[in-house]
Structure formats: C-alpha cells, structure tokens
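Cross-check.
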Amino acid sequence: MVKLGYKLMSEEHAPRDLVRNLVLAEQAGFDLAAISDHFSPWVEEQGHAPFAWSVLGACAQATSRIGLMTAVTCPIMRYHPAIIAQAAATLGLLSDDRFVLGLGAGERLNEHVVGEGWPGVGERHERLSEALDIIQGLLEGELSNYRGAYFTLDQATLYDRPERKPLVAVAAGGPEAARLAGRKGDALVVTEPKPELIEAFESVGGEGPRYAEVSMCWAPTEREAQETAHRLFRWALTGWPVQAELPTTRGFAAATRHVTPEAVAQQVTCGPSAELHLTSIRKFIEAGYDHIILTQVGPRQAEFIAFFERELAPRLRG
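Predicted model, tokenized:
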C-alpha cells in the first residue's frame, strides 16, 4: 500500500507553526512527515528558515505515530557527515525508530554560508559518496576512522545509537544520482514522476522505499491558489541546474521575474479540485513510487490537512 506523507516546508513556516502543523497531520492520518533543511528561504516572500534538527526534536516529542524524515539534508559542506550521523541516531532514539535520514548533494543557497565555496557537480557527488560511507558506517557502528579525498574521521563513535539503524534515503534528479542511491543508500527520493530513476536505482541493487515529493496548492479558488503558488513557489520553475547554483534570494527573485502565476500552475496543481490534485499524485504512483510526500504551498495548512483527510486520503487508499 502507498504511504502518504506531509511536507513541513521550513522555508515557509516558523518553528512552532511547523510543530503544530505536524500534530494536525498526524491526527489526519498521514503516515509520515518530511522536513526541508535550509539555512535560507528560496525567495524573501517565504520568510523563514529555522534549524530543521531542532524542529525535528520537538516534532518527535509532540507526536507518537507519524514517521519523520529529512527531505533532504546536505552532508557535504555546512555539516560534516559525522554530525549528521549523530543527529540521525539521536532522532532515531527520540522518535522510537520513526526517523528516516534523507540526504542530497545540496544547493549553493544553503551551503555557501560557511565560506568554503561551492564545488562543481562532479565534486559534489564525490563528496556525497564519501559522506554516505561515513554516515552509514557510523550508524551501523562499524566505522570509526576514515580518510577520503574530502572527509576525515578520527576515532569517532556514536554512543547513543538506536538498535535499528535509520534508513538512509538519497535524493536523485538523474540516473547517476539514482545509481549512487542504489549503491550506498537504503531508499530513493525524487521530485519528478520518472520511472527511469527507479530503474537506475534498482540496476545496481537498490531496494527499499521510493519516496516522491508532489507539490500542490489547495485554496478555496483556483485564482487564489495560483497567486499563492506564484508568490511562494515560483523558484521551483528555475530547474535544478539553476536551483543548485544561485547563492541568494535576490538571485531567485531575478531569475523568476518573468514567471507568471499561470506558468507556476503548470507545475503545481492549484485550487479546490480533488480530482486535479489526484491526477498529479497518481502519476507518481503509476511510475512506481510508494511513499508520496504532499507539499502544500502557502499558509492554508490546516485547511489543506482537512482536505487531505476528507477528499484525498480515502481515494488514494481506497
């Protein structure tokens, strides 16, 4: 059966609101919740960027059933992989084994803040590969020393580590990253309904959950939803090669200056129609993804969660 998830957009909501939204999501029957880990919002209109790991700790204590996940965090610049392993192990314990660690190669927007520059895509993938070795080894309790081209580990031990290792899910936008997820991860994360990413993941022995994020904007009218999605989510139309490289919200404002609400609505389903949103969601299910994370754009989170419980969940689970 397909598992249904809720996205905690840390770029759009203050930390207390994120926790309150998660409590509502658990009550409404969502199976899991994923949080973005950003130092900066994509555009100024979003207005938030709390520390995801602090929010996750609060979420673990505020809920009892719903799964928790990073979607995704970047362990190659802003954090050393050992710190992410320690954080994941702690969340595994605090959540009673409800936590999944989602990892990706990151964006300049969030990683350049530590002043170490921003490498090209090839080096980013090499760094992520090393980070996966370190994180998996520490979480399994089988690694304490490591010397790679980019990272070193010196007599490291996780003293608080759950008996069941948290799954490590790896984000992929193309076949190369999907194969990396298959070789070194426990699950796959995508944002497009591409069956070829699953094929690449499985071609190297990858198995486990296949997560997909689906963006939407529920509102009482289609026009309101389009305007909200344009104001807060137009950055997504720049495409991954741009999203990974721009360093500031000003850059994303300039890159999306000519994007219209109608153009955003071509990528983000907008309005009160359940059938419209279901059509978009089903594309991912038909492509083979079994964990669907719904991203509701904008402030109407409680209304969306009620809409999910009333209109979406029964039809997706039925």
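Residues 3-317 form a domain with the TIM Barrel fold (CATH 3.20.20.30). The chain has a mean pLDDT of 98. Passed to J.P. for a second look.
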